[in-house]
Design goal:
The chain has 150 residues and is an all-beta fold. Helix content is 0%, strand content 37%.
């Protein structure tokens, strides 16, 4: 027994799930009215209340810890950087970390070699999560958050 498409009238095989002519679902529940559910309250994201740090896991500064204090932390080869990584593979102004409501947001500020998070090159702003691995030049850094007062 063939299934006739309710949209275009094409006769489809009896085991077809979609119309071969127009792609419409042949499932009888597809025509059922959509049930409207009541609105659900949206929960606010709690403000960030932790202490964050970057730990160098590879490179000549392996083991070095940088506390991410303040609302804006700069990472680069420039001596005035909050996180100073002295190597030619790191741009003078490589990365900025800005404190947002849910933690730090990373922004590559036009570095030559790029910035990678968990092995993926970043484009634009990326919210960091505890345990993320950052690669800045040849350095690998671990982003860690320890909760305080929670």
């Amino acid at each position: 027994m063939a299934i006739v498409c309710g949209r275009c009238g094409y006769s489809n095989a009896d085991d077809a799930r979609f119309c071969s002519a127009c792609g419409t679902s042949l499932d009888s529940t597809a025509d059922a009215p959509t049930e409207v559910l009541s609105a659900v309250g949206v929960t606010e994201v709690p403000p960030y209340r932790g202490q964050a740090e970057l730990v160098v896991t590879s490179g000549h500064r392996s083991g070095t810890r940088f506390e991410l204090a303040g609302d804006r932390v700069t990472v680069g080869r420039h001596p005035d950087s909050d996180v100073f990584l002295d190597d030619i593979t790191v741009s003078r102004r490589h990365v900025v970390l800005e404190l947002g409501p849910a933690g730090h947001i990373l922004l590559d500020v036009g570095s030559l070699n790029g910035t990678y998070i968990n092995g993926v090159r970043t484009d634009g702003e990326v919210t960091l999560h505890s345990g993320d691995e950052l690669q800045v030049g040849k350095f690998k850094l671990l982003y860690l958050i320890s909760s305080i007062g929670l």
